[in-house]
Design goal:
Elements lengths: L3 E8 L4 H14 L4 E3 L3 E2 L6 E8 L15 E4 L2 H6 L9 E5 L6 H5 L7 H11 L3 E4 L1 H8 L5 H10 L8 H11 L2 H23 L1
Parallel strand pairs: 1-5, 5-6, 6-7
Antiparallel strand pairs: 1-4, 2-4, 3-4
Helix pairs in contact: 1-6, 1-7, 5-8, 6-8
Length: about 200
């Protein structure tokens, strides 16, 4: 495998950076060459956050070029749309349906676009989209703080992901505090099953 690029986008406080660390750690466990980018944007709660994980033999630089993402993992729909420059026909967009309206929308008295409008914009770049109902799925885990591991589980269900599922779980065990581990493993499996079920249809 020459390279596999994952771009993770969201807002501060959603666990985007931990998700990137889990993916990078799992790739190392599988003996893969991996580069994880620096954070772009502001990591404080509510600020836009982008992280890039590149896996493969030919990967030297940590940044993903425009149109070169194999997966765009969107923790927030509007942030996903804002980062569609990374997408192309080959890109699989895995996106949470939980909307967190940015401050500038309220300041400009603009309405948050509906999901139909968001999907129309994504479909200009790629038809490969999996929407993960993270808010609904967290009801099964009992914690809204598990959305990031639900999305990592959804990513694990991606057929082309070169990282093994077991390695992602091992990375979870290494990086998540022990008091929250069982909850997050449960969330991972729920996210995995959600996307696998859709693929089976």
């Amino acid at each position: 495998m020459k390279e596999f690029n994952v771009v993770l986008v969201g807002v501060g406080g959603q666990g985007t950076l931990l998700a990137a660390e889990i993916l990078g750690t799992a790739a190392v466990k599988d003996g893969l060459n991996v580069r994880v980018s620096e954070i772009h944007g502001m990591a404080q709660r509510g600020g836009a956050v982008t992280s890039e994980v590149r896996i493969g033999k030919s990967v030297l630089a940590p940044t993903v070029m425009d149109g070169e993402a194999d997966v765009l993992l969107g923790f927030e729909p509007l942030e996903t749309v804002r980062n569609l420059k990374y997408a192309s026909r080959k890109t699989l967009v895995i996106m949470s349906d939980e909307r967190i309206a940015p401050i500038e929308l309220a300041a400009k008295h603009k309405a948050y676009p509906n999901m139909k409008e968001i999907l129309q914009k994504i479909h200009v770049f790629t038809k490969r989209v999996a929407i993960v109902p993270t808010k609904k799925l967290t009801q099964k885990t009992g914690s809204t703080l598990t959305q990031n591991t639900i999305l990592i589980g959804a990513l694990a269900a991606c057929a082309k992901l070169p990282v093994k599922k077991v390695s992602l779980v091992d990375a979870l065990k290494e990086l998540v505090p022990s008091k929250n581990l069982d909850l997050n493993i449960k969330a991972f499996e729920i996210g995995y099953a959600n996307v696998k079920k859709k693929e089976a249809r």
